[in-house]
Amino acid sequence: MKKDRNMTRRELLAAAAAAGAAAILPAELRAFSPSARAGEFFAHSEEAPRNLQPFPMAQVRLRPGIFQKQMEANRRYLDSLPNDRLLHMFRVTAGIPSQAEPLGGWEEPKCELRGHFAGGHVLSGCALQFAGAGDEDMKRKGDALVAELAVCQKALGADGYLGAYPTEFYARLRDGKKVWAPFYTYHKILAGHLDMYTLCGNEQALETAERMAGWAEAYLKP
Fold it and tell me: What is the value of pTM for the model shown?
């Protein structure tokens, strides 16, 4: 079939999304999947309406269904991670004794991205579980992590640095030596603390984030 014109990138993405969604989504979700009308919308609208704003998470609750099941699976996974294991490499870096078994994967003691999951994504996950489901246990888990990470930050010195690896990684970055994404990891830890502040009202998380920002400012100033 000959096309009258080339598809725009947005129309192509919308069509691909619609085809993919129709193939893999269960029937009850297909009504919410992208359709041919998505391509029509994007072809005539370059930006979303400016008067649309998201509901605060605390005002929205999932009903029984696939999305709620996925949220509950996330919750069970977060709950399965002992805080002592999540904190292990932060404590080692800060010179605080730790007998916990290190986590594997990204938190492996030799991985240069260590800290971004334990001190970042997990905090964000706890905060989102509280905001999205009113889960007080997840809030308490996040609050406890924030408190212990603040202890590590204090032990590392008065300049505000917080990480699961030494600042030598940033010296390597400054000197153009090989190093794996220290500021990516720093950002995740900051984001986790900011989520705990904005979604859970944890003032200590904001204080830790502000001190972390102060360290980054001093590093970048030269």
Answer: 0.77
